[in-house]
């Protein structure tokens, strides 16, 4: 099957219903506390890093002053360990008074004043994963109302200390409760991650109708092994996961750990590139106050962000798995463009991988290629062999324009692929090296 046919086929399959709150038509972007700051509540000894309103204010300042917000990174999301151990007299959740003296509503206002949004966290069980008060069935209405009163913009609903029956009731009920508040609140469901992430235990049709995004798999940790295990799981199960995703409904492979301690620059580019292929939410979990310029430039790369944010919202797939350890990933983009990622699992040295666009099933034509991380541009005919040099645990990522001088409507006349001739004076490059 040619790739262009695949585009049309997948475009049809995402015409499924999404949660009708009008939010997250492209994958949400922002910052999330958990991976980098965990449950550090020791503000006395670690005031800079503890889960407190100061941490979220610091991140909001960095997002709005260091060029992140303009690129789409607008959510500032609180994770576990924010609340007091006790509900208040009316039975409402309340923030820890020492660490959040201003309260959550004021923090939300702080975000909104800067063009940012605030996210908060809760758990379907008796307790959150960190042991704080949970939001089981009988607390769902009151907690949804509390979050709406605080003007929160997103809610992550974790699943520790709950069982499958409770989850079946609780996740849809929270969706209704959030809707009933009248405030559009992005809804992130950890449900599938607690049920193995796959059918028949997980019903992705239903998830897309009740949640804007969902975690399918285990938590990311600050290591390449962790990133690789997520990549492997997602692409091994791509046929199930791709059809689940679309505008308003996203698979969430978890946070970006670029700028932390565990990844080299090549591995950081690999995470960014493959998260964009996956149409993943882009939540950084790092310290934006001290991030290196190298990590920043990867996270702020406009072309990789625009690939992630492509309005068609079709999740990409792995199309080649070579014995050499090279893998090729592809994502269809709007305007008949596409993205390609060449990824190396090798541990020796940069590998010179030779292929052609026609071997990757691109239709006849001449394509403008932009290397996402070097900005190099080249014209490439589908039949021309090229070589990419891929670093160990690294990637080469391409934005591939629509084929020039080719009329696809004509190609598909009568529902059949017609071959087409065209002149290509401008592409006299015999062999391309990027
Ligand atoms: C190209 O299409 C052929 C025929 O459908 C298929 O067997 C092959 O796996 C495809 N290759 C890629 C890279 O998608
Ligand atoms: C609630 O759901 C209805 C029906 O699906 C939808 O029209 C409305 O926009 C939703 N409201 C919010 C706040 O999510
Ligand atoms: C799930 O928990 C509820 C209590 O909330 C309990 O009544 C039920 O038996 C449990 N179900 C399973 C399958 O463990
Ligand atoms: C999955 O959910 C959809 C929508 O809620 C429902 O129509 C369908 O029957 C469910 N599928 C299974 C196998 O339960
Ligand atoms: C793809 O190209 C065809 C033919 O040029 C055009 O009709 C169609 O609108 C394009 N699709 C998109 C999504 O731009």
Automatic annotation (TrEMBL):
Main location per the UniProt record: other
The protein's enzyme class: hydrolase
GO biological process, one term: glycolipid catabolic process
Database matches in PROSITE patterns: ALPHA_GALACTOSIDASE
Domain of life: Eukaryota
Pfam families documented for this protein: Melibiase_2, Melibiase_2_C
Stored Gene3D superfamilies: Aldolase class I, Golgi alpha-mannosidase II
Compartment(s): Lysosome
Name of the molecule in the record: Alpha-galactosidase
């Amino acid at each position: 099957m040619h790739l262009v046919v695949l585009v049309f086929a997948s475009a049809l399959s995402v015409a499924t219903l999404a949660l009708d709150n009008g939010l997250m038509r492209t994958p949400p972007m922002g910052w999330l506390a958990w991976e980098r700051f965990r449950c550090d509540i020791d503000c006395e000894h670690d005031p800079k890093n503890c889960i407190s309103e100061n941490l979220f204010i610091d991140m909001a300042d960095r997002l709005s002053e260091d060029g992140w917000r303009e690129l789409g990174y607008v959510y500032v999301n609180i994770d576990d360990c924010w609340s007091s151990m006790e509900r208040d007299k009316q039975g409402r959740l309340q923030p820890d008074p020492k660490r959040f003296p201003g309260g959550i509503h004021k923090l939300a206002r702080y975000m909104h004043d800067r063009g940012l949004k605030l996210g908060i966290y809760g758990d379907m069980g008796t307790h959150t994963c960190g042991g704080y008060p949970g939001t089981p069935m009988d607390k769902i209405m009151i907690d949804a109302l509390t979050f709406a009163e605080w003007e929160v913009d997103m809610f992550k609903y974790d699943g520790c200390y709950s069982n499958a029956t409770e989850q079946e009731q609780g996740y849809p009920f929270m969706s209704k409760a959030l809707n009933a508040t009248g405030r559009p609140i992005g809804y992130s469901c950890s449900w599938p991650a607690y049920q193995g992430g796959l059918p028949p235990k997980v019903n992705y049709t239903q998830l897309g109708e009740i949640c804007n995004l969902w975690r399918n798999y285990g938590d990311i940790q600050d290591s390449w092994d962790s990133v690789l295990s997520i990549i492997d799981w997602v692409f091994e199960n791509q046929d199930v996961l791709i059809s689940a995703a679309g505008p308003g409904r996203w698979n969430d492979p978890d946070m970006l750990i670029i700028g932390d301690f565990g990844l080299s620059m090549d591995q950081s580019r690999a995470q960014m590139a493959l998260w964009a292929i996956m149409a993943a939410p882009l939540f950084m979990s790092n310290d934006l106050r001290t991030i290196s310029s190298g990590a920043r430039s990867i996270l702020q790369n406009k072309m990789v962000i625009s690939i992630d944010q492509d309005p068609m919202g079709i999740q990409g797939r792995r199309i080649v798995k070579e014995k050499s350890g090279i893998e090729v990933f592809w994502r269809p983009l709007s305007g008949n463009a596409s993205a390609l990622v060449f990824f190396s699992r090798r541990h020796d040295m940069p590998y010179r991988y030779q292929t052609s666009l026609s071997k990757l099933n691109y239709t006849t034509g001449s394509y403008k290629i932009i290397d996402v991380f070097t900005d190099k541009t080249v014209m490439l005919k589908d039949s021309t062999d090229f070589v990419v040099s891929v670093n160990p645990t690294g990637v080469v990522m391409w934005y591939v324009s629509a084929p020039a001088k080719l009329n696809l409507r004509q190609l598909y006349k009568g529902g059949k692929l017609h071959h087409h001739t065209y002149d290509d004076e401008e592409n006299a490059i015999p062999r391309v090296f990027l």
